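Page 37, top half.
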Amino acid sequence: MTKMMASQAFWAGLPRDIACVAVIGAGAMGGGIAAQFANAGLKVILLDMPGPEGGAPDAPAQAGLARQVRIQGFMGPAGPGRVVTGNVVRDLPLLAEADWIVEAVVERLDIKRDLYARIDALRKPGSIVSSNTSTLLHSQLVEGMSDAFRRAFLITHFFNPPRLMPLLEIVSTPETDPALLQRARQAARQLLGKTVIDCRDTPGFVANRIGCFWMAAAALLAREHGLTMEQADAVHQAMGIPRTGVFGLFDLIGIDLVPQVWRSLVDGLPATDRFHRYDIAADPLFRTLVGQGRFGRKSGGGFFRKTEAGLEASDLATGDWRPAAPVAPGKLPGGGKDLAALLADPGRHGGYARAVLGEVVAYAADHASEIAADPSDVDAGMQLGYAWRQGPFVLADRWGLDRVAAHLHSAGLPVPTLLAQAAEKGGFYRDGHFLAAPAAGAARDVPLTAAGLRAQGRTILGNGSASLLDAGGGIGLLQVHTKMNSLHPEVLDVIEETLPLLGARLQGLVIGNDDPRAFSAGADLRFILSLIEGGRRDELEAFIDRGQRLFLGLRHAPAPVVAAVHGFALGGGCELALHADCIVAHAEVHMGLPEVLVGLIPAWGGCTSLLARGLQAGLAPDDAARRAAATIFAASQSGSAEEALAAGILLPQDRLVMNRDLLLASAHRIAVEMARQGYAPPAGLAVTPPDGLDLSDLAGEGSDYDRHVLRGLARILGGGGSRSDAENMAIERQVLFELVDRPETRARMEHMLGTGKPLRN
């Protein structure tokens, strides 16, 4: 298999009805959108204005591409190669090839309409055309355009940066072709990994309408309540909305956006809209900051700045700089964790929290049905677009809707109809379902989750550390639920109980979980160190031996095993995945074998699994061994699934999933297909290590102990001859315990646990 064919195989599980995308506008957003389409394995045409006379004609587009490389908009080194750059004067006819054309040019209606007329003359039938606008309405953009263009046109509002922000707002109209709209939604979910919310054609759509209102209200109410910026930000951090606080968020996104973004909202909304009450574009302090070029982090300071003397903050009354006085959320009423206590506080902090949350809940409830096809999407918009841990309706339920209503009465604000309806039904949510109003948006797939299966009473067996769930279709779901899903004896207990069920009660197994942070961070280091320091060598040997036996049991089980990896899949967690028949990897997974950082080597089959994968990929034995050794010794972790593929941790026959919400369902589908096709367990790894392997050059300027570790790796990955799975495990175990007995290893482990940083002694 050629490298290109291997690359394409990895993306084979993604939909193929969109193969080529054109993005017009190579700025921060356009370039980021282009990069994300390329991350999905698609061909991308990136166009911008021609370069200056006498220079490179495609310089602006090439600069946009280079910027995405620099800021890691691409998930792997192959991504930029999928992007073709050009300019709109010479290369606009290339649009005829595109299945989706995204416009991301300057927010000027005249420029966009002129471009649309040219696009309409070139695009192929059935292609999607969309704008990334955040300030203009759909109705404004398509005015005067052909009927065919109006049916094909959407607003697709991405959030910055497009690779990392999961939210995509889509605005359509009754004129929009329903089939085309559904095609765009599915592509956004499956190819781009986005959570899609359907928005009405109203100013700011959903997230910016509510988010900008919140930021404006929070900023001006802080001054009214006599709080400093530091105090106000601490209150927001305590409420989980968001980590930066409101003033920190202004500095992050740029205060220079206030005249354009906030003014466009105020000007586009009726005079009766409460947005006018918090017009920060007209506020003297904001105008002063903009006039002085104090835009935030991009300009070296806005509300906050770092100086040689330390952090400084702006005075909310005058804008003058003063030494910052940060407030820890834990110092607030409720200790930064008890929302009820904070909201009940009679002092300034509680009063401010009630004022801000009351305003936002009332505003969201007043306008939810006006701005969103599904009112619950207000919560999704604030969580995914503004990094709130919980949306305003969830927070209202936590506050208590009777208390929200009482606060609104005391503030002279009417109780919105939606809030009153929710109060009658016992809250906005019950059992995860939005109750206050029927959802009018498009029907959505309910993702497969471990929590959902547990709620349905589909637990087969388990303990406090892991569970086996019935995922349907004869497939089990093995879920680890320790801290960071680390592996210790109780987890192994569940694996041992699961193995006899494979091929009998269960025709396949998925290993995965719902934890947004980790598939598994590996073996519990504190547990291992406690055994070493406690002189409990027999227990440690039994733990390692048992893990080896059970992981081989998964490899050779009479039913297919599929690992659904995401977040951190490190050390023993990575090894667990490597023993599966197929790994289904979320695009943003971080995989690696960092054991060297604590003086150890992977001993649950990780070393020889990497060697075997290199041989499977067609590398010569010496090259496969050296690549495996380099990966292990560097203790690196991939920044994405594509990087894990390039490192040989993943194979082309493994599968990529762009959307985390679809991961378990994708793994389940593959397990079902493998079982139906007539599964036969694999033979042993059949590893033939190279003879006379010398890895000393990998140490570079490392320590003598680094060289000692490399000699151990050379024994595992070299030696010549053919070894069975049991022999591979035996030599990994032997080298591991030689390292366990060294004081340098214990020093590395203690240093890592004490500081969180590696010690290369």
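Page 37, bottom half:
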Amino acid sequence: MTEHAEYVLSEIIQVTGDSKSRAFWKKAIKELGANKVAEDLSELKLQTHRERKKNPAAYLTTLLKERMNLNTTPKKPAIKLITYFEKTQQDLFQHLMPIPIPKDEKGESGNMPTPYSGKNIPWPTFIGPEFFTLSTNKKKSDTVMYTPRSKEGTGPAIALIRGKISPDSKREYGIPTTHHWKVFSALQLAWSQEKCKFSQYDNGTLVCFIVVAAKELARLLGWKHWQHLGKNDLRWLKDIVTDLKSMPYYLRWENKEGLEGYGFYLVGDVSLINRKTSAGHETLFNVSFSSTVSWQLLERHAVIRPKQMLYVKSELASLVWLYLEPNLRANDKACINLSNLIKVLNLPEAGWHKLKALRKQQFAKAVKEINGQRLADGRKMIVTIEKGLNDYQLAAHLEGYAIKQLED
């Protein structure tokens, strides 16, 4: 063994306290190389720092065996995000069009034949970072450019109006922020954990719905004191969920049949129940997703995103993650000037946008929170800020193997 390999072996024994497995540790180092084993040892140290592992040796053994199996098993081509897209641009816009729900008809309830696992967030692929803004944005509506994607590739950018149901409307309802994105994601996660319920109507409309307690929603969002929600926290949740029903979008899209565009929502209906229980008061949300979102979820035009996204505190970091993940899944790497990233994310105007040093400072804070985070398939995002020719750049790539089975 080389000097470096001997050092890694001694570190393993020191961290795990397991010298009896020396033969296995040496075999892993020989097959994988000392550097790869050192990576998994670093992962063990990180996890041990975050939460005390009862059996660190067993945890490291699992990581190393996964790598060793990947070395001996023929690698399948990585599943690209494009797998989950609509076939054509025409299909995409046809299925995004809202379908009216019969008012006097009670739909027949059912569950997806093959539901999502409920371990992570099923996210409709048509929804990108363009749909959300920062809470510092005081505008009640605006127009941004939206680039639709399908299996055909990316189509020409079209106008997406946020906060208005139609271009000529005089009423503005507000633009969903990253706070709305988090709650919407938590609702989808709760829906997937309840076996993906939906209602079907005689006209063929399918609407996904979920009944979820406010405390459960807070737990999914990663709130520390979710079991004891204060009045302000509960009021905030009620307002955000209700906002999702009332904040519209409008897509300007014209076709040969005379269609000019259509308005839609992410959530179709919301009702709320307050009741007394033996443990105190309880608030239940009864949420139906819009027909637009429901179709995409039930047809599995969705990608699985890690629930750890919900725990990111920085609003800017959340938007950056929303931008990065589909690009990394499609290309394994991404690089963009910070000045261009500000435009792509449609960030509300701020003084720090104008100076390179301040741009670097703000994005560095966001990167700190998402660097090292893992996708749902287990691969790690490595995100850095680097110096480019005329501006600092955000650079990212995926590290490791897709060791977890993704849902189709």
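Margin note: The CA atoms of residues 20 and 310 lie 41 Å apart.
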